[in-house]
Amino acid sequence: MGYTVGDVVAERTVHLTRESLVRYAGASGDFNPIHYRDDIAAAVGLPGVLAHGMLTMGIASSVVVAALEPGAKILDYGVRFTKPVVVDPERGADLHVVATVGVVDDTAARIDLKVTFGETTVLVKAQLRIAV
């Protein structure tokens, strides 16, 4: 796959529900009640039940991975968490990911991810490097 700076490699919206959070808790072992109990989230001053940060990070990278050719090699991946994803008990939450080629050199392409919940950017410096 050839990479050109500015090209959108992938874009997807992923819908999260409270069930998504429970399933992730079971898979990850992270049973912090801020991820499934409104009363606990409110008691610690949160705006509601939050999606796990690592779930958000994993969803973002999965959008890129799904678009890569078989055998593609990911060299590194990093993000900075900035805002939480609040998962409403009835409406859930939509996480939108746009992956754009930011830099290409002789050995790698850097894919920049814009990850938003509504109008809010929830991850910054979300970058994934792929061997070319």
Order of helices and strands: EHHHEEEE
Total number of strands? 5
**Oligomeric state of shown chains:** single chain
Apparent shape: elongated
Strand arrangement in the largest pleated sheet: 1-3-4-5-2
**Gap between N and C termini, in Å?**
8 Å
Uncertain ranges: none
What's the number of helices? 3
Fraction of residues in β-strands: 35-45%
**Which secondary-structure class do the elements indicate?**
alpha+beta
Radius of gyration: 16 Å
Overall mean pLDDT: 97
Q: Which bin fits the share of residues in helices? A: 10-25%
State the major sheet.
5 strands, antiparallel
Topology readout:
Layout: E1 8-16, H1 18-28, H2 38-43, H3 53-67, E2 74-81, E3 93-104, E4 108-117, E5 120-131
Antiparallel strand pairs: 1-3, 2-5, 3-4, 4-5
Question: What is this structure, in a nutshell?
Answer:
The chain is of the alpha+beta class and 132 residues long.
Describe this structure in words.
The protein has 132 residues and is of the alpha+beta class. The chain is 24% helix and 39% strand. The chain has 3 helices and 5 strands; from the N terminus they run βαααββββ.
Notable characteristics:
132 residues; 5-stranded antiparallel beta sheet; 3 helices; 24% helix; elongated
